[in-house]
């Protein structure tokens, strides 16, 4: 470990701990590359961009690329910060780790009071890597690519008018699946199966399962149920009603307004995320803890 990235939520306690952490790492001759991040409502973009650039602003670095020589990136702030870190590193194979502040999360590795013990293990190489799949979402309008993003948790298409449902025409591998009449549609990875998709009635999927989920939000037709698709599938989505305006949101943070002229393509990303694991807890222990499930080996 020669150089570590540090992405910090704009929170008083997190910023103070980050200052302490920088000094601690400097005392071990480890260089720190630091970025602060502010979260609010999802940002909305109206911009059209060329094929090589996303229309959605990066909430961490505002265009700055992470250095290629980072040994890892640590996010101080919880799951939202870690999701921003995953988007910031893009297609780079840089391991990431989250430190929780506030509410308990699924992705962040440890609580802030255990930070320095965790960093000792990290520096000594006493950790494993969990590889998590991502989705690649592209939004194309009249032949021009508006958005190209890698997504760790989920892509959400939702209505922008409170009182209206939207009609979402969905194809799988070029074949029509259905037109959802609903408040929206969630496309979630196994990692994202415990986030918004779970709240909308979707299943929990083990991160080693090679698939992703289509979860309709409050479907008008009760037979429209969540569906698990293989990770080899290609999804094409389009708003079917010319009068409807909708929003596409990425990992609950940034978004772009869409309408019937936009074609949304979702496939498995070629760039999985490498998440540092220091606890060696199995997935089911984590799941029981985070979802507060009862039961154990003797029950």
Q: What is this structure, in a nutshell?
A:
Helix content is 16%, strand content 38%. It is an alpha+beta fold and 299 residues long. It folds into 2 domains: 3-133 and 272-291, 3-Layer(aba) Sandwich (Rossmann fold), CATH 3.40.50.10330; 135-268, Tumour Suppressor Smad4, CATH 2.60.200.30.
Commentary on this structure:
The model is unreliable at 40-63 (pLDDT under 50). By secondary structure, the protein is of the alpha+beta class. The strands form four sheets. The chain has a seven-stranded mixed beta sheet with strand order 3-18-17-10-13-14-15, with no helix packed on it. The protein has a six-stranded antiparallel beta sheet with strand order 9-8-19-16-11-12. Strands 2-1-4-5-6 form a five-stranded parallel beta sheet, with helices on both faces. The protein has two domains: 3-133 and 272-291, Probable inorganic polyphosphate/atp-NAD kinase, domain 1 (Rossmann fold, 3-Layer(aba) Sandwich); 135-268, Probable inorganic polyphosphate/atp-NAD kinase, domain 2 (Tumour Suppressor Smad4), CATH 2.60.200. The chain is elongated and about 60 Å long. The termini are far apart. It has helices at 12-26, 79-89, 115-123, 196-199, 283-291; strands at residues 3-9, 31-37, 43-45, 72-76, 96-100, 110-111, 128-132, 135-141, 144-151, 154-159, 166-172, 175-182, 184-188, 211-217, 227-230, 235-239, 246-250, 254-258, 262-268, 273-277. It contains five helices and 20 strands. 16% of the residues lie in helices and 38% in strands.
């Amino acid at each position: 470990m020669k150089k570590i990235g540090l992405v910090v939520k704009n929170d008083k306690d997190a910023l103070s701990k980050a200052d302490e952490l920088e000094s601690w790492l400097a005392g071990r001759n480890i260089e720190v590359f630091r970025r602060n991040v502010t979260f609010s409502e999802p940002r909305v973009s109206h911009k059209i961009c060329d094929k090589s650039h996303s229309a959605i602003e990066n909430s961490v670095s505002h265009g700055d690329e992470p250095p290629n020589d980072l040994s890892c990136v640590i996010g101080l702030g919880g799951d939202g910060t870690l999701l921003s870190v995953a988007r910031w590193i893009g297609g780079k194979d840089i391991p990431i780790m989250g430190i929780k502040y506030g509410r308990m999360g699924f992705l962040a590795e440890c609580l802030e009071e255990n930070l320095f013990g965790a960093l000792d293990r990290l520096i000594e190489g006493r950790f494993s890597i969990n590889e998590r799949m991502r989705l690649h979402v592209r939004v194309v309008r009249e032949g021009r690519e508006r958005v190209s993003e890698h997504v760790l948790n989920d892509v959400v298409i939702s209505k922008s008018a409170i009182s209206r449902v939207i009609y979402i025409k969905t194809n799988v591998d070029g074949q029509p699946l259905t037109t959802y009449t609903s408040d929206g549609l969630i496309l979630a990875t196994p990692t994202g199966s415990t986030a918004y998709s779970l709240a909308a009635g979707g299943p929990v999927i083990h991160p080693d399962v090679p698939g992703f989920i289509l979860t309709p939000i409050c479907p008008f037709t009760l037979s429209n149920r969540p569906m698990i698709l293989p990770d080899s599938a290609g999804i094409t989505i389009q708003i079917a009603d010319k009068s409807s305006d909708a929003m596409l949101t990425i990992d609950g943070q940034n978004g772009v307004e869409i309408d019937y002229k936009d074609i949304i393509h979702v496939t498995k990303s070629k760039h999985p995320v490498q998440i540092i694991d220091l606890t060696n807890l199995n997935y089911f222990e984590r799941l029981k803890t985070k979802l507060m499930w009862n039961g154990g080996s003797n029950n």
